[in-house]
Write a structure and sequence with these properties.
The protein is built from no helices and ten strands. The protein is mostly beta strands.
Length: 125
């Protein structure tokens, strides 16, 4: 497994989503970057956009904190919050970015460590 943290002070357009996720009608689909949405603490099922999403083994998943508050992206199950050691972004300041290379097929659930009701998952195939 490989993870890296990047401070994303200058976002690039090539990190945009592959399509407008608010109009996804065909179910979970892969996006270049998963957004931690603005005001996400009050949107537990919609805190991460796109959620759920799917990717291929070996793809690099990236999360960008688009909220004004710090967050984490921690692999594991809730409730109770149980990190599984797969990946952990540590604290992501606003505009920061975290990347993780997805290794192994299956479902990779994740959550925000401080508000464990903020959950997401990546289906890896």
């Amino acid at each position: 497994m490989s993870s890296k943290y990047k401070n994303n002070d200058s976002r690039k357009e090539d990190n945009r989503r592959q399509h407008n996720c608010h109009n996804c009608s065909s179910g979970p689909q892969w996006h270049d970057t998963i957004s931690i949405d603005s005001g996400s603490a009050s949107k537990p099922t919609d805190a991460f956009q796109q959620n759920p999403t799917q990717a291929s083994v070996g793809a690099t998943a990236a999360w960008t904190n688009d909220d004004s508050q710090p967050h984490t992206v921690t692999s594991g199950q809730t409730p109770p919050p149980t990190p599984n050691g797969g990946f952990d972004s540590s604290i992501l300041a606003p505009t920061a970015r975290f990347e993780h290379t997805l290794t192994g097929a299956g479902t990779s659930p994740y959550f925000f460590l401080l508000y464990s009701n903020m959950v997401g998952s990546v289906g890896i195939r």
